[in-house]
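Onboarding guide, step 5: your first structure request.
Type a short instruction followed by the sequence, for example:

Predict the 3D structure of this protein.
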Amino acid sequence: MSEQTYDVVVIGAGPAGYVAAIRAAQLGLKTACVDMFAGKDGKAALGGACLNVGCIPSKALLDSSRQFHNLTHAFAVHGISAKDAAIDVGTMVGRKDKIVKQFTGGIAMLFKQNKVTPFFGKGRLLAGRKVEVTAADGGKQTLAATNVIIATGSAPIELPFAKFDGKHIVDNAGALDFTATPKRLGVIGAGVIGLELGSVWSRLGSEVTIIEALPDFLAAADADVAKAALREFTKQGLKIELGAKLSKAEVKGNEVHLTYAGKDGDKQLVVDKLLVAVGRRAYTEGLFAEGTDVKTDERGRVEVDEHCWTGVEGVWAVGDCVRGPMLAHKGSEEGVMVAELIAGKAGHVNLDTIPWVIYTEPEIAWVGKTEAQCKEADIPYKTGAFPFAAIGRAVAMNEPAGFVKMIAHAETDRILGVHLVGANVSELVAECVVAMEFKGSAEDLARIVHAHPTLSEAIHEAALAVDKRAIHKAN
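The system replies with structure tokens like these:
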């Protein structure tokens, strides 16, 4: 068993791990990155779940399905007609695969340019800051490091009575690779993954039923935003059942027979495909050998402080396998922070200003506290909202659904949270993040000139509405 020595060894090459590795190398640290992910062709593929079977491929399919849906449902109002429009699912999925391969190859090139050494295999932390790498053929080697960054990410949660078979009952990866549009698609879980992938196949003609155990829709989002989003999704034909708990999923022939408890008692549903999207868990099983002293919590997450240090000398953890939201951009910034701390520089990530985005149609985005959280914390607050239906650009785009809601401290006017639902809000939320990072107030955004006509005017008007002085709506 050979042993090589590095300043930094990163376990995991997802958005948290590969970014940490690149930044560490940029800072002059001899860096290696261990990853076990294999692409559809069986070859090593950097980028983790996000790039290979998550963020990027899902957005590719969302865009393809949106184009098709617009062609068949939305273009007539523009005077554009298309007869006998059809979607070739194989071509659509092939485009998605090409995009994924382009970016996994891009990370490999970045590793080469920054002199990051990749090791392909499963990483395991040993005592004394050593990492054992087990290759696909069973061969082992050991890397020694001054610092180890754990970035092993997360994995889909599997239900014991609805186990993944890769054909009829699938996780997010399986739902990205259907060879044809299922006539009936069942989705367990109305979270980000369930809503996004449910939207993809609904736009392409699938009859989609989403079963959510919680009684409230998008409980993590602001209640007003969740209510508006649910209304729009229902209009689009998504059937969303809340307070419904799946108890049985049986594959019979080419169908999946579901039994679930709804508000009106037990119900039955037959679908052609079932996507189980009930959340993700930290991927830390078998990661730590005896004597590492790294602790995990009841959910398998690595315990860390505000700087992602595990409490063990030279051992850090970032991304989905630690506390905080399971978001790629959160993991990436934690990776940068840790690399800079290791190099003796300052590093910090503010978990209170991390933006959330759901890439449905309309999009949903938010940053900061919800109104309910302000009430719970007894924070005095005031709100202002403005609808996209009163924004010229949104109406010209034929996308008037949604609004911007701003929450500010009632006494200091400091922005506490901004919640958006509508077209392109995934981009608009960035302005709000910047304002909050600079301790901005609603007055600050109200005083900034926003270009006309743009969607960003909704943020401007919402800021004005906080003090009941919006121009283009009644106060």
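Each response can be followed by summary notes, for example: The mean pLDDT is 97.
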